Amino acid sequence: MDGSQNVKHKTEFLIVGAGAAGCSLGYLLKKAGAEVLVLERQDEATRAKLCAGILEARAEQAFTSVFGMSVDEAGLAPMNLEYFNLRCGTHELPRATKERSASGRESVAESKPNGLGSSPDGYFKKSGKLLAKIILNQAVGYDLNKNGTFRTLPRKRLDDFIRDRYLSLGGKLLDCTVIRSVNEAAGVAQCIDLRTKDLFEVQFGNLIGADGACSAVRRLVSGIGPEASLALETAVPLAGQGMIMQLIPGALGYNWYIPRGNDATVGCYYMDLDYGPEAGAICRQRLAAFCDEIGIALPERVPGALIPRGDQVMLQPGKRTFLVGDAAGLIDMFTGGGIHYAMLSAQALAGSFTGGPFYAEAMKPHLAFINKNTENVKRYYNILHLVG
After folding, report:
1. Three-class SS string for 213-230?
2. CA-to-CA distance for 304 and 41, rounded, in angstroms?
3. pTM value?
4. Is the separation of the CB atoms in 16 and 208 below 8 Å?
């Protein structure tokens, strides 16, 4: 491939992946007047990403920073969780709540299981759990008072909004298209239309991988894929308005039940399981047991995806190639969340192309958080198991 034949498209920015990271970046670049083309492997009309649907406070803040409006103002209608249950095995961890005496003084008392409360903060206020909270607040840098409340929504609703904002500015999108090879020096990517099987080339000024933890862009340019673990997730009928998170003693990960309006998701993510058939079988077994415990029938087919582990972050694998979101390995190891990193990295990279700080410089504070988080998350889980 020499870039001289079969060039079908020429663009200043070629973005691979039409999710939150790719289309947020495309939107910001189009706002700045750039020429942008986004490629997407899936059919855009039915495209769906495995995602529990949690909107952390940081994700909402990042959304507002990128689009200049809140998720409510955008009409995305996230759902408020009524309560948060944290379990270790089948045992629900007691929650500490504040009680006010007749004299007006507050004291901490243990609440009964299944009590209301949208924040996990109360689980870390008594006895040995204080150490877990110290790790979160100091070592990891995760402030539960600011970041510990969640809202939820179907991920497709969020991704469709971001894609439509990009398209509304005249952005171009080719779906059912994959990138097969890259000649970075020539600035040419060879692609295939999955509908017609036609091969074609795209000439680009800059190439951006926003194509998830299995990023083809990252692999083609650097030869190195991120370390990743398997997650399983599926939609189920709504069985309650509260979120349930279950830790498995001795395992580095969790199962979840998360309502998101008209339905809910159940899933599991275990960072200590390498990807492969055995990991899939173990995950499904743990998820099936969890569903039995909460009275939900697990569907026969449960989709899976790889989630980065946060220990192989790569922002720029080539001279004119950059990575954002999951493709760069950006993730919050504590929550498994990546929506805020998708939009923050898109904003940082767009800024670097439009006169702002270099991408790596703008991402330094976020990388410091990820590094701390990755180093301490195992210790955090171990403490929870010990004090549960």
Report:
1. CCCHHHHHHHCCCCCEEE
2. 16
3. 0.85
4. yes
